[in-house]
Amino acid sequence: MRQGYPRRCPALLGLTLVTVLLFLSPVIGWRPRPWPHNKTNAYDHTFGDSKKFEGSSEFVHLKYHMGPVLTANITVHTIWYGIWERNQKKVIREFISSISAANSKHPSVAGWWKTVQLYTDQTGSNISRTVRLGAEKNDRFYSHGKSLTRLSIQSVIKSAVTAKTKPLPISPKGGLYLLLTSPDVYVQDFCGQVCGFHYFTFPSIVGYTLPYAWVGNSAKLCPGVCAYPFAVPDYIPGLKPLKSPNGDIGVDGMVSVIGHELAELATNPLVNAWYAGQDPSFPVEIADLCEGIYGTGGGGSYTGQLFSGEDGATFNMNGIRRRFLVQWVWNHVVSYCTGPNALDQ
User: Rounded to whole angstroms, how far apart are CA atoms 270 and 210?
Assistant: First the structure.
């Protein structure tokens, strides 16, 4: 999700794709040719024999704008802003670590990332399959207050990379900086327009151009907006929330937003690579096109076909030891949203 581009409320998700399509350039659908066979074969990453895709449209004009994508090994440096419980950190760490865990039970987080891997740079090199945890920084004392603006978020990152003790490493090539705010922190436009966003830091503020994302824990402020479907907004009467897979609706809701932002950071880190639309300041990216879709039939307030565990928890993919619910992303090879699918089991 691009900075300034809203993550829509669940009641409006059914209108999201229609609205996007009406305002995109009215040209025919554009689908890139598969890259030469010495590169990753795109058709190996359409989830085998599964034909269960969602959100197809000939009007989606997702295009490559020649900017860099993250083909080198990706390292996620995390800033924990505010007070975080140990188990909350474990859930998020394991989700990130699961992206590269090839031995996870199917359907897996690593399988979900295969769609992201389809995207390439101008040389035909695919986005890296390796996503690993990097250094972490704790900001328990709210160094920039409990109300952050978009620019002050960059100041938080500056504090982390210039700290006198254990500063985060500067990794412009494969490093991503993930700022996570605790439930008692308000960020500009949080809940009303966004649940998370990504952009890059300004050298005038941070000293470097670094891709970063912010995601907030909505448990206290707006779980019905940003932790849906584990919480339901008041304006959808009669709809019951689903049981979260890790027992924390705020963190389980964050996981899907983190996945959303990591997928878009990998494919559009400097906002000049993969996106739809004519205006790079208002791009529609690979996860924006699939908001609200977690399985076959997803759209509107319906998540699609999901798994239900013996404990009643709802999920659509497995990590190393945990289960997660993460939205699908746009597959430009088949022009559909794709992801691990409960109906394939």
Answer: 9
Distance of CA 323 to the CA centre of its chain: 16
CB 40 within 8 Å of CB 117: yes
Collapse the DSSP code of 134 into the 3-class scheme (helix H, G, I; strand E, B; otherwise coil) and give the result.
Answer: strand
Interatomic CA distance for residues 71 and 258, integer angstroms: 19
Neighbours of 38 (CB within 10 A): 7
What are the tokens at 70? 């993250």
Please tell me the pTM assigned to this model: 0.85
Token pair in block for residue 298: 């997803």
**Per-residue pLDDT reduced to its tens digit, 7-62:** 444 433 333 333 333 332 222 221 122 223 233 333 333 334 443 445 545 557 89
Looking at the DSSP bridge assignments, the partners of residue 337 are 54, 330
Instruction: Please give the single-letter amino acid code of residue 87.
Output: N
CA distance 46 to 22: 27
Q: Give CA torsion, residues 19, 8, 131, 177, to 10 deg.
A: 120
CA distance 319 to 331: 21
Whole-angstrom distance, CA of residue 221 vs CA of residue 75? 30
Strand partners, 148: 187
Tell me the per-residue pLDDT of 160-172, one tens digit each, with 9 for 90 and over: 999 999 999 998 7
Distance CA(199)–CA(208), nearest Å, equals: 13
Q: Is 302 helix (H, G, I), strand (E, B) or coil?
A: strand
| Annotated domain spans of the chain | 10-344
Name the residue with tokens 């990706």. Answer: 74
Coil vs helix vs strand at 225: helix
Give the closest residue to 160 by CA, choosing from 183, 135, 187.
135
Q: Look at residue 61 in the predicted model and tell me its pLDDT.
A: 83
